[in-house]
Amino acid sequence: MIYVINSARYNLARHIRDDMExxxxxxxxxxECHHYGSEENSxxxxxxxxxxxxxxxxxxxxxxxxxxxxYDEVLIHALGREIYRxxxxxxxxxxxxxxxxxxxxxxxxxxxxxxxxxxxxxxLGIAMDKLxxxxxxxxxxxxxxxxxxxxxxxxTADAGVADLARSILGLTQRRRELxxxxxxxxxxxxxxxxxxxxxxxxxxFGERIELAEKIYEELLRIFPNEVGLYHSGIPKDARxxxxxxxxxxxxxxxxxxxxxxxxxxxxxxxxxxIVSSTGSPRQRVQRVGRVLRRKQDGRQARLYYLxxxxxxxxxxxxxxxRGGGEEGQVNVFDIVYDEENAEFTHPYYQHxxxxxxxxxxxxxxxxxxxxxxFRNANKGLLKSDWLMTRECCLERIRAASGRAEKNxxxxxxxxxxxxS
Length: 420
Fold this sequence. Notes:
Strand 9 (330-338) and strand 10 form a beta hairpin. The protein folds into four domains: 5-85, no CATH class; 98-108 and 182-344, P-loop containing nucleotide triphosphate hydrolases (Rossmann fold, 3-Layer(aba) Sandwich), CATH 3.40.50.300; 111-178; 346-420, no CATH class. The longest helix has 24 residues, at 111-134. The protein contains 14 helices and ten strands. The N and C termini lie far apart (60 Å). Strands 5-6-4-7-8-3-9-10 form an eight-stranded mixed β-sheet, with helices on both faces. The chain is α/β, with parallel strands linked by helices.
């Protein structure tokens, strides 16, 4: 029997109880089991309240992102412990996902944002110290985590503690919004799109509709007829049309919000720009998965993750892959965006470029050739072509479709020689 969740939450428990009373062995598979932790959806597990003696129920709960607030108290209790985990490293080794590179791009606040962030952090620290004074340590434990504890205190504590918890939640939300909407995220995203190839298919993920719309407007000005916008505030038919245009290559850049996180298969995308961090591991995995679907032509994917340094925002997108991928499969880079010059920097890469320019200059090459190398080297920083083997790069040079592409790979070859 196959159920959809809307029917299962009201009928499945009774169905299972009937099967058990008939002596049937029940196998329950709760696909995308992270959905079943909510109060309403967890009704499917009510059969556990009355299991006949001798009844046998086997349970399995697949999910790419099982870890939600109710993981321990609902999912583990109802489905049992985790028995198998399939990671990105496994998927890479077995060729299930595309080869890819991750670029963690460090940003900073502008002066006004930085001042406000420090002010909010100071107020938050004072409020937290006060909370620790008023609430005993044993009461600070909550199965849903710290923010669930604050929400619980708002509803149940005396007026003083409730007001303090409400204040902490408000300050935390204001600080989070400040980080999400940092002004330089827009500038950086635009520069990343500028640096991409004209054939790249790009998905841009945001946390807030306001920011997504600003990015869309700026990109539309620079790349008319090449950009689409997809978020929950847009009518469903218009969203479908935008998605179809992206799939059919009528547009090559898609700016999206959380609506785009789950349930869509878009193998055409090979570049993902995560404009702001999400606190949800589920959304993080879903976003990465949109870009890593295996490509028919075997091309490599690139993920750019933007974060504001020296804040509570995560500084790494997929830390488990750092140093854990096979050679030629995954590389993780930490780069910095210079807002004043609209440039990206990476110390080791800049070292290679400097050495290559010295070699070219000492070799007596004319200024025009050195300038062409430098221009192409700037493009290469935001890709990982400079890490390929000499043989592979020479093949790319021979197969280049035009002078511009050939010059780019010649520049990469110069960097590869300096690297080795």
